[in-house]
Every structure is written in structure tokens, then in C-alpha cells.
Design goal:
Residues 31-87 form the Acetyl-coenzyme A synthetase N-terminal domain. This is Acetyl-coenzyme A synthetase. InterPro entries: Ac_CoA_lig, ACAS_N, AMP-binding_CS, AMP-dep_synth/lig_dom, ANL_N_sf. With 595 residues, the protein is of the alpha/beta class. It folds into three domains: 13-82 and 262-520, Rossmann fold (3-Layer(aba) Sandwich); 83-256, Rossmann fold, CATH 3.40.50; 526-594, no CATH class. It is built from 18 helices and 25 strands. The protein has an eight-stranded mixed β-sheet with strand order 12-11-8-6-7-14-15-23, with helices on both faces. A seven-stranded mixed β-sheet has the order 5-4-17-16-18-19-20, with helices on both faces. The protein is globular. The two termini are 42 Å apart. The relative contact order is 0.12.
């Protein structure tokens, strides 16, 4: 079970010394110095990182202007670049035959590998197909696709020609997709005939057909073939068979020169009224932040096999399956299936087969696998692993320790990442060679993130061993710039609660060592559930909380609440189930509106 270096001392676990030897950030003192500079001199700190890590068509004049208070932030003014060039072309020049994407299909043995050269060619073919259909710079393109390589081709193709992609999770209903198409006035939709997940077949094209019915502004539905089911209907008026269309177009498309603040993508998240919010991210700031957080959080090295087993329909997939890893030139693994298919050894099997070095999943999956015991995991060789990431919600200490001791054999760093769709990338996370770990804590703020803990009136609470509302004082490159089509909503949601601060909507505790623990959602979305100790970490967390709690209500089993992982003893002590039934019903309706 590893050596004494992996043992807790006063609640802290030291960084992995073997990782520290080659890490980008080798000790806590180096982190502190860089963090201090990132707050005191953001102009040069981020300017240097941008010039060192990104390729520019035109250099920028100024790194940052604007303030959080006014919501008028801009980064890398007058600079020009292209996302796809930074994620593909420049790597083709250095290692054309390196594998860019490993696709692990739902059925074992049916996946494939795509080199950087192949990724460039496929991306360009999709880009040319879009241009042929009339897609221009600034147009919005919706993507409702399963986790197949083509979703990456389409996203990257959009960035190549300057189109704005809007990826909609392929588990959402036709109504949810329709709402998003209407909100962004989207003329083009990419989908697949069907999807595969956990042995099930998903009728994606059928859902799209329902969503676009009567929407006269939708000009084309581009359809990739996942299952090649001949029963899937095609509408000759608007549907485009991408298997045939790809054959018609050249494998090269010139990259558009994009201004640093040009809109890159929209990603819809829930709003307090049930109406979706189109979180808008811009080109240079988002790309740099996704790249740098991915590089430092996972200490990416050239020979890494990096696997984030999330879905591209969430911000995690955008930042840490597609853009972050590819901008760094590493091999990224896309996972179509589930951790339980065909059995609960699926994660361990893919780690062994591909010799995965960096692995990123959610506490939901970790807890489910932990509940199955340790026998299955012992069948596999997981010695290639170096860093284990957790995303989507704070990981409870019991699951953290199992992840660390059983999966990582006390030889892997646990990166407990805290962030939001709106932040673009990690804002609270430990660094593998530098930061001691604490179960349940996202540890310290990332570079440029100036955490402020306030009371309910917005007054800063200084010092350690405190609890309050978590805000951010200064702008950072990855922050969302607006809510698409409704900047006032952006200001009201994030910049108006506490003047001069970005309001995360989360409560937090800062312990005696200055470590941060996220304690619960405090905005109007989940305010009524605050006393239950429930958290909001994004739509995945919403859905899990709603499912678990509503099932318990239906079965009239309040005693079982104490057995639920993740909510801790606070939930058991505070829940008066039947007195709160109306709150749960309201919450369920709230969740249903985003699903």
C-alpha cells in the first residue's frame, strides 16, 4: 500500500514526491510566489503565459481591461488567433502521427484512435461542409451528439471558421433542445442517427426531429451515422448525411483570424426561473484558461494518456476533454459508455488497456464503485496512474480516501476541482507537486483567483476558521463574459449580489490552514434546501440530488437518509422530510425544467 509519504498528518496528505520531481510546479513555495504575482501583476502574469503557450496571428496590446463590478472585462485586446490552430495545426508540425484522441466506444473493442493529422483533416472537412451550407463567422451552430469523435470534429470546425457552437447534452429532451435553438436563433444542428450508452440505444435524430418541428429558421440538420440504423428517417429538405458529405470536401480549410474577444461558444445552464441561461465564453481568455488549468492541475506531460470520462455536453467536456488537453498537445480519451457497463470494472479495464496516467471522474461514479467493494479493482493493473481528479461536486471524505488508497494505492495525487460553467476552468484546486491534500477540500485558489469570503451583506470576513459566502474579487481570463442575448441578466446574477465581487452562489468554509471547503448552494435556485446541506455543482449534481431525495420521499424511508453518501451527518440531523415535502416538489419541478 505505498509508503509512509501517503499517510495523513494532522488531516493533511503530502504531495506525491515522485510527481514533484518533474512537476511544472514543484513545491508550495513556488505556488505561493506565482499566486502572489498573479494577483499583484495580472497584466504581465497572464500576458507572459498567453505568449508562451498560445500561437497568435497578431500579438495583443494589453492583457486585461475592465472590472468585475461593471461586468465589462476583456482580455488580450487586439490580439488575433484561432482555437483550432492552437489545438491541432501547431501539434501536427511537431508530431503529426501522435494520437490526439482515443475513443473508447460503448462496446469494448469498437473504439478507434485519431492522430493529430487525422484530426486536422476531419475537422477541415466538417468546416468546409459548414461553409458550403452557408455557415459564416459569428453564426450559431447547435450540437446534439453522443460521445463519438465527430463531436470533437464539429466543435473544432466551428472554432476554425469562427462559428459559435452551442453543445446541448444529448440526454436532454426535445423541449430543452428546442428552447436552446430558439434562444440563440440557431439555423444549423449537428446530430447522430442514434447514440449508444450502457448497452442502450438513444434515438437522437428522432429527438432532434421533434425539436426542430415548426422552427422555420432551422436550415439544416447534419446527421452523422453512429449505428447506421436504416429505420432512422431522413428529411431530404433539411437533413444532410454527413457520411456522404464528408467525402465531398477537401481535408484542408483555412483558419479564420479571430479577435481575442470574439464569441467562441455558448453553453446553457439552468436559470432561477427555469429559463436556460446561455453562458457565453470568448476565444483567447477561455482557451488560455482551459489550457493552463489543465496543464497545472493534471501536471500534463508530453507522454500522458489523459482520460476525462465526462460528457462534452457539459463544461467539463469542453474544457477538459477537448480544448484543455488538445491545446497542450497530449492524448485525450473520450468515453462513450458508463462505469458499470458491461460490468463495474469498466474504468479499471480502460485504465489498464491504455495505460492511463491522469484520470478525471465524478464522486457519483466513485461512490457507486466503492459500494461494489474492492475485489474487482484488484483484477487490474492501475500502476500507470499518477493523478486522480474529481469533478462535479465536493467529494465526501470516505469516497476521497477510497479513491486515494484503493484506486491510487496512495501513490496518486487527488485533484478535487471546484469550478463552474461560468468560470471556464478550475478556480479552486490543489497542484500535484505542491499542495498538501485534505479530504473534502478543493484546497487553494488557482492562479488569478482572488477568493473573498463575505457575510450575507457582502462584508468581507477576514482570517481563517471562518464560514460565509464565496465571491471572487478580480477578473480572470476564463470567466464568462455575458449571458447570451441578456447582459443585464448576467450582471444581476453574478455581479449585483455583492458590489464589486463576482458571486459564486456557493457557501464556503475556510479552515485554520486557509483551505477552502464548499458548504452549499446559497442562491435562489436552491436556497430553500440550504438547511439540508445540499449543494449545487452543476446540472449533474442537481439531477443526482433530486433523484436520491425524491426516491426516499416516495418510499417514506426517512431513516435511510443517514445512509446517503455525500450529504454527511448534517443531512441526517436536519431533515424533517414530510414537513419539507413542498420544497422537494418545487425542487423537482426546477430540475425537470432543465432536463
Amino acid at each position: 500500500m505505498g509508503d509512509s509519504a501517503g499517510v495523513s498528518v494532522n488531516g493533511q496528505y503530502p504531495p506525491i514526491q515522485e510527481l514533484a520531481k518533474t512537476a511544472h510546479i514543484k513545491n508550495f513555495e513556488q505556488y505561493e510566489a506565482m499566486y502572489k504575482r498573479s494577483l499583484e501583476d495580472p497584466e504581465n502574469f497572464w500576458g507572459e503565459l498567453a505568449r508562451e503557450n498560445l500561437d497568435w496571428f497578431r500579438d495583443f496590446d494589453q492583457s486585461v481591461v475592465g472590472t468585475v463590478n461593471k461586468g465589462d472585462v476583456a482580455w488580450f485586446l487586439n490580439g488575433q488567433l484561432n482555437v483550432s490552430v492552437n489545438c491541432i495545426d501547431r501539434h501536427v508540425k511537431k508530431h503529426a502521427d501522435k494520437v490526439a484522441i482515443i475513443w473508447e466506444a460503448d462496446e469494448i473493442g469498437q473504439g478507434r484512435e485519431i492522430t493529430y493529422t487525422e484530426l486536422l483533416e476531419e475537422t477541415c472537412r466538417v468546416a468546409n461542409a459548414m461553409k458550403h451550407a452557408g455557415v459564416k463567422k459569428g453564426d450559431t451552430v447547435a450540437i446534439y451528439m453522443p460521445m463519438i469523435p465527430e463531436i470533437a470534429f464539429v466543435m473544432l470546425a466551428c472554432t476554425r471558421i469562427g462559428a459559435v457552437h452551442s453543445v446541448v447534452f444529448a440526454g436532454f429532451s426535445a423541449d430543452a433542445l428546442r428552447d436552446r435553438l430558439i434562444d440563440a436563433n440557431t439555423h444549423w444542428v449537428f446530430t447522430s442517427d442514434e447514440g449508444k450508452r450502457g448497452g442502450r440505444t438513444l434515438p437522437l435524430k428522432q429527438i432532434v426531429d421533434v425539436a426542430v418541428d415548426g422552427l422555420d429558421f432551422v436550415r439544416n440538420v447534419f446527421v452523422f451515422k453512429r449505428t447506421h440504423n436504416p429505420e432512422v428517417k431522413m428529411n431530404p429538405k433539411i437533413d444532410v448525411d454527413m457520411d456522404e458529405e464528408m467525402k465531398r470536401h477537401r481535408p484542408y480549410c483555412a483558419a479564420e483570424f479571430m479577435n481575442a474577444e470574439d464569441l467562441m461558444f455558448i453553453l446553457y445552464t439552468s436559470g432561477s426561473t427555469g429559463a436556460p441561461k446561455g453562458i457565453a465564453h470568448t476565444t483567447a481568455g477561455y482557451l488560455l484558461y482551459a489550457m493552463i488549468t489543465c496543464k497545472y492541475t493534471f501536471d500534463l506531460q508530453p507522454d500522458d494518456i489523459y482520460a476525462c470520462v465526462a460528457d462534452a455536453g457539459w463544461i467539463t467536456g469542453h474544457s477538459y476533454i477537448i480544448y484543455g488537453p488538445l491545446a497542450n498537445g497530449v492524448t485525450t480519451l473520450m468515453f462513450e459508455s458508463t462505469p458499470m457497463y458491461p460490468d463495474h470494472g469498466r474504468y479499471w479495464d480502460l485504465i489498464q488497456r491504455y495505460k492511463v496516467t491522469k484520470f478525471y471522474t465524478a464522486p457519483t461514479a466513485i461512490r457507486a464503485l466503492m459500494a461494489r467493494g474492492n475485489d474487482k479493482i484488484k483484477e487490474y493493473d492501475l500502476s500507470s496512474l499518477k493523478i486522480l481528479g474529481s469533478v462535479g461536486e465536493p467529494i465526501n471524505p470516505e469516497a476521497w480516501k477510497w479513491y486515494y488508497e484503493v484506486v491510487g494505492n496512495r501513490q496518486c495525487y487527488i485533484a478535487d476541482t471546484y469550478w463552474q460553467t461560468e468560470t471556464g476552468g478550475h478556480i479552486g484546486v490543489g497542484l500535484p507537486g505542491a499542495t498538501p491534500m485534505k479530504p473534502g477540500s478543493c484546497t487553494k485558489p488557482f492562479f488569478g483567483i482572488d477568493f473573498v469570503v463575505t457575510d450575507e451583506n457582502g462584508n468581507e470576513i477576514k482570517g481563517n476558521d471562518i464560514e460565509g459566502q464565496l465571491c471572487i474579487r478580480k477578473p480572470w481570463p476564463g470567466m464568462a463574459r455575458t449571458v447570451y442575448g441578456n447582459h443585464n441578466r448576467y450582471l444581476l446574477t453574478y455581479m449585483s449580489t455583492h458590489k464589486g465581487l463576482y458571486f459564486t452562489g456557493d457557501g464556503c468554509r475556510r479552515d485554520k490552514d486557509g483551505y477552502y471547503f464548499i458548504t452549499g448552494r446559497i442562491d435562489d435556485v436552491l436556497y430553500s434546501l440550504r438547511s439540508f446541506g445540499l449543494f449545487r455543482w452543476g446540472e449533474e449534481g442537481h439531477l443526482e440530488c433530486a433523484f436520491i431525495l425524491l426516491m426516499m420521499l416516495m418510499r417514506k424511508l426517512p431513516k435511510k437518509l443517514g445512509e446517503v453518501d455525500n450529504f454527511d451527518e448534517r443531512l441526517t440531523r436536519s431533515v424533517l422530510v414530510w414537513q419539507r415535502f413542498e420544497q422537494f416538489v418545487a425542487f423537482y419541478r426546477r430540475v425537470k425544467s432543465i432536463a
